[in-house]
Specification:
Helix content of chain A is 37%, strand content 27%. Chain A is an alpha+beta fold and 312 residues long. Chain A folds into 2 domains: 173 residues, 2-Layer Sandwich (Ribosomal Protein S5, domain 2), CATH 3.30.230.10; 129 residues, Alpha-Beta Plaits (2-Layer Sandwich). β8 of chain A pairs antiparallel with β8 of chain B, so a sheet runs across the interface.
């Protein structure tokens, strides 16, 4: 193989009650990585589109190419050289797993180029390393679902223990990205280091309820469990009109609505594409009333993860 | 109906990672309540066996008869009178849901006597009230599984939201009650009111893992998730030889081992009755080495809950 073009999906992390442990993939948006072999060893970046010039063009400092290099080193294949082009289709700091989608597309693409020496699960540590470089925190709740597809639980990091949970086929996601930016590091910084035992118990109940609801296809239980008593009350203040937008989603039959990842994107879950579209319209209109433009993505739960778009 | 004799099972609450939200019922031990109609209105206690004289004989102060009276009042049937006999088959303060089994047997029996005016779920608030009277805390993680059978999650108390989770048929429980006593109020008192965010995240991961493992019948995942980083490290000091007994269970292929409820009973889960018996033997021997006698119960997961033993 000399050329691979691969897509990796955006993701919704936390999913209300599951801070740092839950995430799911959506069909769109997503980032695209092109990898082309070259004769000399080493990875170089040819171009990055869609990032407004904000990501490093130096391959030794860009998270995507750094982890591709780690993967080559692990395989003892530092003889391999390639040219990388990265197409960002979502803004940085959007809360939709932008850095994760790029890292996953990158490691997936180079693994395809080399004839799949690693399984999907084996690629995960490389993608997590990409998150550490890009965001300063080695979290897996975006790279996990972007790489494996579906609804993913990160039970533990040491050792890494990641698994998928089946979800109802009719479950749909509304993802609204308001045109403001939240820095993931800031969003982490404002969290308290301690949680009351009472709130811990409530949140554990919601975690148990969401997993059971997804597996039993019990939409009422899913809805009752999409409640975050720990993180959302703190981070909501970073998103103007958060309460109003959430209420608009719930008024339009959303099963639940909360912050996507560290925000400012907000997600809602619902029982059909039609409902998801209606919810999205209501959420966008509510942002607009406050003069905030936004972008809408309506999608099923993406069970596939990264996708090979082209190879030759 | 003039006479009902009913059994309600012991329960294991918390189940390692699910403090105050998880519980399951076992086949034995369990408490038995006999209810016999009498001509005059009002509930009287005829006898209590197996409590070493420690429970109130005054029906207006005994949790079981108080909640039976509440049930009659709710039905506007204060004309009904009955004589109650309570057979305690497990010690008070054992961590096996002793007070819950009695309360459940009581409300189940009087509901049968009256021709089932309430569903099982409708009986739950009465049984929870019994816990409040008996233990000073209206928790449902023992009465829930004792009344509904199976593995039960209490997602929320306000409003009450309780549901069952399917478990593998081959799952078995070893329950060992060392001959020491822990007061539930003391066991609550030593807990910290704050939990680190880090431990909250770990525990949520284990909650998600245990539910997924039970529903997928993935015993490895069940085993990895039977970990309690919040409560067990604090309460284990109340149980002499806790670490040694737990290790003995794990050395004998237990999927996990922790404190049953507030202790001092300890439970282990395993994949067969044979394993559960072997684990129990090893746990008892370890207690014995420290001069502590104990009682062993080996059981499947009781999916039935309370049982009508006799009616006429």
């Amino acid at each position: 193989m000399n050329y691979i073009k691969a897509f990796a999906p955006a993701t919704v992390a936390n999913v209300a009650c599951g801070f740092d442990i839950f995430g799911f993939a959506v069909d769109e948006p997503g980032d695209i990585v092109e990898v082309r072999r070259r004769d000399e060893p080493g990875i170089v970046i040819m171009d990055i589109t869609g990032d407004e010039g904000r990501l490093p063009r130096d391959a030794s400092r860009n998270a995507v190419t750094v982890v591709m290099q780690h993967l080559l080193k692990k395989l003892d294949r530092l003889d391999v050289g390639c040219e990388v082009t990265l197409h960002k289709n979502m803004p940085l700091g959007s809360g939709m797993g932008s850095s994760a989608a790029s890292a996953v597309a990158g490691v997936f693409a180079i693994n395809e180029l080399l004839g799949q020496p690693f399984t999907r699960h084996q690629l995960l540590p490389f993608a997590i390393e990409g998150e550490r470089i890009a965001c300063g925190s080695a979290h897996a709740d975006n790279v996990g679902p972007s790489l494996l597809g579906g609804f993913v639980v990160i039970r533990s990091y040491q050792p890494l223990d990641v698994f998928t949970v089946p979800v109802p086929d009719s479950l749909h996601c509304t993802l609204v990205h308001p045109d403001i930016e939240v820095n993931t590091k800031d969003a982490r910084y404002i969290l308290r280091n301690e949680v009351s035992l009472k709130n811990t118990i409530s949140q554990m109940g919601n975690v148990a309820g969401l997993i059971t609801g997804l597996m039993k296809e019990d939409f009422d239980l899913i809805s009752r469990s999409l409640v975050d008593v720990i993180i959302e009350p703190v981070r909501a203040i970073l998103i103007p009109e958060f309460n109003e937008v959430k209420q608009a989603a719930l008024d339009n039959d959303a099963l639940g609505c909360s912050i996507s990842g560290a925000g400012p994107s907000m997600f809602a879950l619902s029982k059909s594409r039609l409902e998801a579209a209606r919810i999205g319209k209501a959420m966008q209109e509510t942002f607009e009333l406050a003069g905030i433009s936004s972008k809408l993505h309506v999608s099923g739960i993406n069970k596939e993860g990264p996708k090979l778009l082209e190879k030759r």
